[in-house]
Amino acid sequence: xxxxxxxxxxxxxxxxxxxxxxxxxxxxxxxxxxxxxxxxxxxxxxxxxxxxxxxxxxxxxxxxxxxxxxxxxxxxxxxxxxxxxxxxxxxxxxxxxxxxxxxxxxxxxxxxxxxxxxxxxxxxxxxxxxxxxxxxxxxxxxxxxxxxxxxxxxxxxxxxxxxxxxxxxxxxxxxxxxxxxxxxxxxxxxxxxxxxxxxxxxx
Length: 203
Hints:
Helix content: 25-40%
Strand order of the largest sheet: 2-5-4-8-9-6
CATH superfamily: Regulatory factor, effector binding domain
């Protein structure tokens, strides 16, 4: 029988956070990733999510047959803009994103490629070819649990920036979000999202 790991339960620091910003640190972690542009939950965003999950379940199926099963975890996203203006002053359709699904450490690029070919045979989804298997090291980060609708996130992000200033940190990577709640099932005021910002000390 395959052993099954649940990263959300095994890596509490990654998947849980307090409502006040904290400093945490993360090693190199494997992900499935796809990049795009457009508003959150817009057409391009939704199609990317719909390609990511079958790919992740394809990897899960291969691993399970080899005796290493895992739970497919929550969607994550990195966000940025190509502008000198703050992100919230840029139209949402001009936002860039990289959507992620974290994978266990035992998943390799070879397993991912095998899964891609298997899933392409079953599902005619063009975006499957654009998904990459990659490893990311965020290192030191400021992290916080945000509860509420996405529209009032800026208040919590401001708290993270205050902590950066107090600790003499600057940004060292992209704004990172982990979506703990399903927006289709959860009222906006109860939505839970982990906000994470990689940082480093000012020289």
